[in-house]
Write a structure and sequence with these properties.
The complex is a heterodimer of chains A (468) and B (229).
Chain A (H helix, E strand, L loop, with lengths): L17 E2 L3 E3 L4 E4 L4 H12 L2 H14 L3 H25 L5 H10 L1 H36 L8 H19 L4 H27 L18 H10 L8 H4 L7 H30 L2 H6 L4 H10 L1 H35 L18 H15 L4 H29 L15 H15 L3 H21 L10
Antiparallel strand pairs in A: 1-2, 2-3
Helix pairs in contact in A: 1-7, 1-10, 1-13, 2-5, 2-8, 2-13, 3-8, 3-10, 3-15, 3-16, 4-5, 4-15, 5-6, 5-13, 5-14, 5-15, 5-17, 6-13, 6-14, 7-10, 7-13, 12-13, 13-14, 15-16, 15-17
Chain B lengths: L3 E7 L8 H7 L3 E9 L6 H25 L3 E9 L2 H11 L4 E4 L8 E6 L4 H15 L3 E6 L7 H11 L14 H7 L5 E4 L5 H18 L3 E4 L3 H4 L1
Parallel strand pairs in B: 1-2, 1-4, 2-3, 5-6, 5-7, 7-8
Antiparallel strand pairs in B: 4-8
The chains are: A mainly alpha (468), B alpha/beta (229).
């Protein structure tokens, strides 16, 4: 292995030369069109986040933390916000595709970068598997609702079947995915708005159904954080916006707005949804409803129509999250392969379909294998674990960059409350991992160690710290 | 006087310039836009790394052919998720007279000029100027829409004044469906694109319909700002 090259003799690819509001300019005469506006950025952030999490967790979370589950979601949202702010600073300083991996590899070097970049790929795979199982639960509820009884393994079979469809569609390069995603996100926001508004008034006793009084912290404070660790999957996605930085118009303005804005929007919806849910049923009843508890809440509030609408919303949300994660995984692989940390072949685009078929298929393979495990909580926590490691390091990267005093480091957006916010965000991200199940922690840690081992085997001579 | 045309080419989809178009362009200036559209989910950076070289090579071979015909060529390569945004942006950045949609054509002789708005007469005549002098084209102006006004007559007068024989002149305004039936009989369609938002969309849609129906090249005039001023 020669200095600056990996085991195959590849070196990191050249980076873009210049950014304009409308394009990224590469070498002589080659331009990449920026096509995503602020709304597009927001829907990507919201659409990735507002998926399975809020539709799958209310029952499980209420079972663990009682009504204080709403606080767990709030904790998750605050951590996400404390990461989104430093991430915004970094993204405006490096307004090209790359995201978290790029920031960390440039701030802390190629070992940290490779570990995070490859782990993130697995994090997205775990997340996709989790969303697909969520989809399975919703699909089966719909079947029950229309009177088709289900067999024992139908959830997994439905999840696998639909996962396969998504993977094939991703390889074929379906057109208008963005438009479809936008419509789904708007629909979800409308449905949830009606749900929390009516439900909120109901909980306040306006319709004569005052909420069931219950102790707010039936199990104490620790479960609140444990639950926050579990439900943090609902916040994975805001940093994906940064990986699209090269395709967002006016990145200096739209990137921070999209990242911070989408975190605030989903946090509000999550917290209100949980407050409504735990006020309609006691948290014990809610937890007995399991993965689709929110359907029963909606049924109690709006009757059968309410149940059906939420079921459909849950299907759409899980689909949109699963889809977004599978697609993000190929961007994750692209950014590490560009730096020659994994074989370039992995991110190659198929000219006929215009999609990175190898990376989609390999991610898809792992996703389907993980779906067969049928371990909702494990999948969700490992996904969060691997993301949280990246989020924590993103926070500290801001401090590294400022200390390195690089001449090109000139962010348009500056994190407020520096250095307190990045430090808090970093500590909180790592802290949340502490509250996870031991099993999830071990799986997450093993993946990171494997990623690091890969780096030493394949690309230890590649240096990325401080380079553009 | 020379015209400067923007020619968007989906170069990786085997689009190229046919002999008729190359002949038509001789002596003018051209911005060759080689572009490739990718699905939303595909990172453009990856596409550019993988395909830039090939696009560049193919554009250069077209450039050589054009330069033999005394055409001044500037090349651009863009990877995009949105075709219209890209073509519109380049059209407004580059100082051009018109966008030529390069459907194949062996020889350009019969040209149909489509007017949709009286305001277009100035910009269309700018484009026509060099063509009229060439005397090798048959020009047929038509007016698309309900009310002819003076536009049609103005154009005829203009062509007459330049000493141009006008064959097969349409004397009454056409509807869109009549026009679409007619376009197949011509080698090139020239149409206006007034820079008003609504008309912009209208003429882009129309240009596509015409291009699909006629299977031949379509030239959408833009009216270079400095020329009009």
């Amino acid at each position: 292995m020669k200095a600056g090259e990996n085991i195959e003799g590849d070196a990191p690819g050249s980076r873009a030369r210049e950014d304009t509001e409308e394009t990224v300019v590469y070498e002589e005469g080659v331009e990449l069109e920026r096509t995503i506006g602020l709304i597009g950025g927001l829907t990507i952030g919201i659409g990735t986040m507002i998926g399975a999490g809020i539709f799958v967790f209310p029952g499980l979370a209420a079972g663990e933390a009682g009504p204080a589950a709403s606080l767990s979601f709030l904790v998750g949202g605050i951590i996400a916000l404390m990461v989104a702010l430093p991430a915004s600073e970094l993204a405006t300083a490096m307004p090209r595709s790359g995201g978290g991996y790029f920031f960390i590899s440039r701030a802390m070097g190629s070992l940290s970068g490779a570990t995070v970049g490859i782990s993130l790929w697995f994090g997205l795979i775990f997340a996709s598997a989790f969303y697909l199982i969520g989809f399975g639960y919703y699909a089966i509820e719909i079947l029950l609702e229309i009177g088709i009884s289900s067999g024992p393994n139908l959830v997994i079979l439905l999840a696998l079947g639909f996962g396969l469809v998504l993977i094939i569609l991703s390889v074929l390069g379906t057109e208008n995915t963005t438009k479809l995603q936008n419509i789904i996100v708007i629909l979800l926001l409308i449905i949830l708005s009606v749900f929390v508004t009516y439900g909120g008034l109901n909980a306040a006793g306006l319709f004569g159904n005052a909420s069931i009084p219950e102790q707010f912290f039936p199990f104490g404070l620790i479960p609140v954080f444990e639950t926050a660790a579990l439900v943090f999957t609902s916040y994975l996605g805001f940093a994906q916006v940064a990986t699209l930085a090269g395709e967002i118009k006016k990145p200096e303005k739209n990137l921070p707005l999209a990242m911070v804005g989408s975190v605030i929007v989903v946090t509000l919806f999550y917290v209100l949804t949980i407050i409504v849910s735990t006020s309609v049923f006691g948290s014990l009843t809610l937890s007995q409803f399991g993965e689709t508890a929110i359907v029963e809440v909606s049924r109690a509030l709006f009757g059968p129509i309410g149940a059906i609408v939420i079921l459909i919303a849950g299907l759409l949300a899980t689909v949109s999250s699963a889809n977004a994660s599978i697609l993000s995984s190929s961007r994750a692989i692209y950014s590490v392969s560009k730096d020659a940390l994994v074989p370039k072949k992995l991110s190659e685009i198929n000219l006929r379909f215009g999609t990175p078929h190898i990376s989609i298929l390999s991610a898809g393979f792992f996703v389907l294998v993980l779906v067969t495990l049928n371990q909702v909580e494990l999948l969700a926590e490992v996904a969060s674990f691997l993301h949280l490691i990246m989020y924590g390091l993103i926070c500290f990267s801001v401090i590294f960059f400022r200390k390195m005093d690089l001449d090109w480091y000139d962010p348009d957006f500056v994190v407020p409350g520096y250095p307190i916010i990045p430090i808090l965000g970093g500590i909180a991200s790592f802290g949340l991992i502490y509250f996870m199940d031991l099993k999830s922690q071990l799986v997450g840690l093993s993946i990171m160690l494997l990623a690091a081992a890969w780096f030493f085997y394949y690309a230890r001579e590649i240096k990325l710290r401080g380079s553009v | 006087m020379k015209n400067r045309y923007l020619i968007p080419i989906k170069i990786l989809e085997k689009q190229s310039l046919s002999p008729g178009i190359i002949e038509f362009l001789s002596g003018n200036e051209v911005v060759l836009l080689g572009y490739h559209i990718l699905p939303d989910q595909t990172p453009l950076g990856q596409a550019s790394e993988q395909f830039s070289e090939e696009v560049e090579k193919k554009l250069t071979s077209i450039q050589k052919v054009l330069e033999e015909k005394n055409v001044e060529v500037e090349k651009k390569i863009v990877f995009t998720h949105n075709e219209e945004e890209t073509v519109d942006r380049i059209a407004s950045e580059e100082d051009i007279d018109g966008v030529l949609l390069p459907n194949p054509s062996m020889k350009i002789k019969k040209i149909l000029i489509v007017l949709t708005d009286p305001g277009e007469i100035d910009e269309i005549s700018l484009i026509l100027d060099p063509l009229v002098r060439d005397e090798k084209y048959d020009l047929t102006p038509v007016y698309l829409g309900e009310d002819v006004g003076d536009t049609h007559q103005e154009l005829v007068d203009y062509l007459n004044k330049e000493g141009m024989e006008i064959s097969d002149l349409s004397t009454k305004p056409m509807t869109e469906s009549e026009l679409l039936e007619e376009v197949g009989n011509y080698d090139l369609i020239i149409m206006g694109d007034v820079k008003r938002k609504l008309l912009d969309i209208f003429s882009r849609e129309l240009a596509k319909k015409i291009a699909d129906k006629s299977l031949g090249p379509v030239l959408v005039t833009l009216g270079r700002e400095n020329k009009l001023a």
